[in-house]
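Title: Prediction job returns without error message
Component: structure pipeline
Severity: low
Priority: P3
Assignee: unassigned

Description:
Job completed but the reporter wants confirmation the result is attached to the right record. Sequence as submitted:
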Amino acid sequence: MTDIKKIVANIFSLEGNDRTVKAKKNIFYLLFLNVFNFLFIMAAVPFTLKYLGAAEYGIWLTLSSLLTWLSYLDFGIGNGLRNKLAESLANNDITKSKIYVSTSYVIFSAFILILWIVFAAVFSFLPWNTILNISTDFQENLYLLVLLLFILFSSQFVLKLIYSIIAAVQKPAINGLISVFVNFLTLILIILLKEFSAPSLFYIGIGSSLIPILIYFISTYLFFSKENRAFAPSIKYYRKEYSRELVSLGFQFFIIQLAVLILYSTHNIIIIQLFSPSDVTTYNIAYKYMFLNVMVFNIISTPLWSAYTEAFVKQEYEWIKISIKKMIYVWGLFTLGAFAMILISRWVYNFWIGKGTIIPLDLTIWLGVFVILINWYNIFVYFINGSGKIRMQFYYAIFLIIVSVPASILFAKLTNNISGVVIGTNICILIGGFYAPLQFYKIINRKASGNWNK
C-alpha cells in the first residue's frame, strides 16, 4: 500500500527530469482545460436535443459521425508528421523539421484536391435518405447540406495539421485550448439558434463546421508567428523524397486511424439502420457520459506520445518503463472510476437530460467495459506509436476494419438490443489488449524481431 501511495504521489508531483516535468505540466493544463471542454460539450447536448428534437438530433448525430471520418481521416500524414518532427527536433535539426512541416502541408493539400474531385463525381448518386434512414419528404435540401458539409469538413484537413505539429513540440495543452474555443463557440451558436431560429439541420451543420475552420486558421497563424517561425511551412522547402517517407509511415497510421474511426463512428450508422434515429440519441447520451472516462485518460496519455518518441530516439528505456508502470496504476484508478460512473449513471442521466429519456442500464455497463478495454490498450499503443514500430498495429487495424462492423451487427441482431453493437466491438478490442502489452515488452527489452520491430 505504501508503494502505491508513493507512485500516486509521484504521478501528481512536478519533480523529475525536464521531459517528465514538461509532460506533467501539460497533463495538468489539459485536465484544467478539458473541464471546460467537458462542460461545453455536455451543455450542448440538451440544447441541441431541445432545438432539433430526438429524431432530427439522431439524424444530425449520424450525419456528423460520417463527417467526423473526414476530420480525422488525414491519410495518416498528421501522425507521420508528428513522429518525424519530434525525431528531428530531438536531434536539433531545424532544417529537416521545416522540410517535414512544409512537405506535409503540400502533399496534404494535393490529397484534399483529389478528394474534392472524387466526391463531386459520386456524391449525387449516393442515396442519402436511405443512408440516414430519412423519409423522402424531409423538409430540408439534404443533398445541398451534405455537399456543403463535406466541403467545410474537408477544408479543416490542412488547417488541422497544427494539432500534430503542436503535439510534436510537446505542448499539447495548446491543442486543449484550441478545443476549448471551438466547443465554447459551438455552444454559443446552438444557444443562439435555439432562441432565434426554427429547428434546422442546415444551420447547425454549417455553423458548427465554420467555427473550427476559423479557430484552426487563427491558431496556425499565431503558432508560427513568433518562436516557431524557424520551421514554419514554406513551399520552397517541399522535398519529394521526404514526401515518400511521410506517406509510407502515414499510410500505416491511416489504416490505424481508419480502424479507430470504425470503432468510434459506425455505431450510430448501425443503430440507425437496425433500430431508429431515436435509439441513436439514446446510445449517444450513454456513450458521451461513459466516454468521458476515456477522454480524461487520453488527456494524461497524450503528452506521452511525443515524449516516448524523444526518449526512444535517445535510448532512455528506463524512463519509458517507469512511465508505463505509472500509467498502469492510473488505469487502475480509472477502472474504479468507470464502475462508479455506472453506479451513479441513473442519477446523472436524470440531472443532465431529464427523466423523459430512459437509458438502459445494460447499455451503460457494456460501454463501461468498452472504456476499460480502450484505456488498457492505449497505455501501450501510445508508446508503440511514439516508437514508430506500428507494423503489428497496422495488421490489427486491418483485422478491426474487416471484423468489427460485422461483429457489432451480429450481436445487435442476436440480442435485438443496441447494447449488442457495443458487445461486438468489445470482443474485437479485447484482442488488442493482449498483443499491445506483448509488443511493448519485446521492444523495450530489445527482444523484438520481424514485424514486432517494424
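Comment from assignee: result matches the submitted record. The chain has a mean pLDDT of 85.
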